[in-house]
Amino acid sequence: MPRKGAIVLVAFPFTDLSGEKLRPALVVGVSRDHLVTLFITSRLTGERRWHVPIAASTESGLVVASFVRCDKVASFDIRIVAGEIGRAGGLVVRAVDVKLRKLLRL
């Protein structure tokens, strides 16, 4: 089972729910059978204050420099995760935690 900080491949829904696309996502929470994830994209779009940069590396499993979108959260049943491709470094995970706390006003 993936843990917090894992980068997994999931069929992430479009925001208008018109479809979905297999893409990387950062795991930020884990329960017995669900993962809470954040969308990862290589495109710098949307409200940039909620973006955390993440490098392409063998550790992350990403092939291009990307951004974790802290404002794009989705929960998935563990059974639909296509696989784990890597892990985010500690600095990225901590930066995401800070932005999530601000966004969610925790």
TrEMBL record:
Pfam families: PemK_toxin
Taxonomic superkingdom: Bacteria
Any one GO MF annotation of this record: DNA binding
Family annotation (InterPro entries): PemK-like (IPR003477), Plasmid_toxin/cell-grow_inhib (IPR011067)
SUPFAM superfamilies associated with the record: Cell growth inhibitor/plasmid maintenance toxic component
Protein name (record): MazF family transcriptional regulator
Lineage, uppermost ranks: Bacteria, Candidatus Kaiseribacteriota
